Amino acid sequence: MRVNVSRTALIVCAAAAIVATGGANAVVDTADVTGQAVQPSGAGTPAVATGGDSRGTGTSTSSSNTSATADAPGAGTSTSSSSAPATADASSPGTNSSPSSTATASAAVGALFSGGNHFCSASVVHSPTGDLLLTAAHCIGGDVSGITFKPGYHDGIAPYGTWQVTAAVVADGWKSSSDQDLDFAFLKVAQPGSASLESLTGANQLGTNQGFSHTITLTGYPDGTEQPVVCTGTTTQSDTYQQRVACPGFPDGTSGGPWVINQDPNTGTGTVIGAIGGYQTGGATPDVSYSAYFDDDIAQLYRSAIS
Question: What predicted TM-score, i.e. pTM, was given to this entire model?
């Protein structure tokens, strides 16, 4: 489980009720919390990149926790990340992944905070208003008024400011039964001033129906650390609507961390096809992570979030 249980309980109790694949060996690299801030995607760029297959059903708003049947972890070696930001059913195992010598923790990835501590990870996803985050549904268990987001967070510094979470949008199937295949959520954020979050940090495009085998960049914020951890790994399918990656060093706190393909080496943004969560709320060990497969369900949820 990739969210600290005691902190989740604290969130739920401290505020009233509203609204962390398939795997391969991988190496976690020392990362820079850099990547220039980029402008939001242009009008001609689709908000959602789609591929082939889907399952259908979904809708919107609140959350909890879940599990299912297990998979053996892959091997790998782990290195934590740091550095200062720039400007304001088991399938066959995947192939070994190579370490990226220029691993970049995107400014669009950050930590969710409550009560002064970070407890989950989230990332900016492109939206018309530039104020939308993607995380795991199991990270959101109560009144969101006590939750803030700090993009590009490191060493106690929030280089792009602190953003208040104002609303959460989760699937009906998660609300009713904590369906592990629907363990994703969108959060809306706000901050005084005219600039949108996305205009400061850049954003990932949401990718749906992209298939199960990819080389991804995985990023998250472990509890008790002040820097993100970044891994390059190869995904495989672990169940009908679950994907898995063997990336060492992703413990509690990394839930909601994005799985990004086609990453721009300068900004760290690309197309997000997963978020740590799903089976075992992201995985029972720090070295293997899961995500619900992003299909038509999350596309429908996204449309609800931006409407």
Answer: 0.75
Instruction: Decide which of 2.40.10.10, 2.130.10.10, 2.40.37.10, 3.30.420.40 is the CATH code for 5-306.
Output: 2.40.10.10
- 3-class secondary structure per residue, the chain: CCCCHHHHHHHHHHCCCCCCCCCCCEEEECCECCCCCCCCCCCCCCCEEECCCCCCCCCCCCCCCCCCCCCCCCCEECCCCCCCCCCCCCCCCCCCCCCCCCCECCCCEEEEEECCEEEEEEEEECCCCCCEEEECHHHCCCCHHHCEEEECCECCECCCCCEEEEEEEECHHHHHHCCHHHCCEEEEEECCCCCCHHHHHCCEEEEECCCCCCEEEEEECCCCCCCCEEEEEEEEEEECCEEEEECCCCCCCCCCCEEEECCCCCCCCCEEEEECCCHHHHCCCCCEEEEECCCHHHHHHHHHHHC
Local confidence pLDDT in tens for the 307 residues of the chain? 566 544 443 333 333 333 333 333 333 333 334 333 433 333 333 456 665 433 233 333 333 323 333 333 333 333 344 433 333 333 333 333 433 334 568 999 999 999 999 999 999 999 999 999 999 999 998 899 999 999 999 999 999 999 999 999 999 999 999 999 999 999 999 999 889 999 999 999 999 999 999 999 999 999 999 999 999 999 999 999 999 999 999 999 999 999 999 999 888 999 999 999 999 999 999 999 999 999 999 999 999 999 9
